[in-house]
Amino acid sequence: MKDLILTIVKPLVDHPDAVSIEMEEGPNGMTYKLSVHPEDMGKVIGKQGRVAKSIRTVVYAAAGSSQQKKIFLEIVE
């Protein structure tokens, strides 16, 4: 799942080396925390959060029913 998120996000940003993902496993599911360079935050979120919503949609669809736990994607500063 990490590779999928990186494949989607890296072409969007100006600083692809600053993209990092941390994974936390909790009782509710697995949370992927995406952090990017501060200058690229707007590109990842998009107008009214449209890009972020699209990224989440693709990640959730890829996880589908193959995962026993729910997947969450957070964009952190």
Q: Could you say how many structural domains there are in total?
A: 1
* Principal-axes shape call: globular
Secondary structure: helix percent: 25-40%
Low-confidence stretches: none
- End-to-end CA span: 20 Å
Mean pLDDT: 91
Number of helices: 3
Strand content: 25-35%
Q: What is the rounded Rg?
A: 12 Å
Strands of the largest sheet, in order across it?
A: 1-2-3
Strand segment count? 3
Largest sheet: 3 strands, mixed
Structural class: alpha+beta
Q: Can you write the helix and strand succession as a string?
A: HEEHHE
Q: Which key phrases capture this entry?
A:
77 residues; alpha+beta
Write the topology of this structure.
Elements: H1 2-9, E1 20-25, E2 29-35, H2 41-45, H3 50-63, E3 70-76
Parallel strand pairs: 2-3
Antiparallel strand pairs: 1-2
Family: Belongs to the KhpA RNA-binding protein family.
GO molecular function: RNA binding
Organism: Rossellomorea marisflavi
Quick structural overview:
The two termini are 20 Å apart.
Description:
The chain is α+β, with helices and mostly antiparallel strands and 77 residues long. It has one domain. Helix content is 35%, strand content 26%. It has three helices and three strands, in the order H-E-E-H-H-E. A three-stranded mixed β-sheet has the order 1-2-3. Strand 1 and strand 2 (29-35) form a beta hairpin. It is globular and about 35 Å long. The two termini are 20 Å apart. The mean pLDDT is 91. Forms a complex with KhpB. One of its GO terms (cellular component) is cytoplasm.
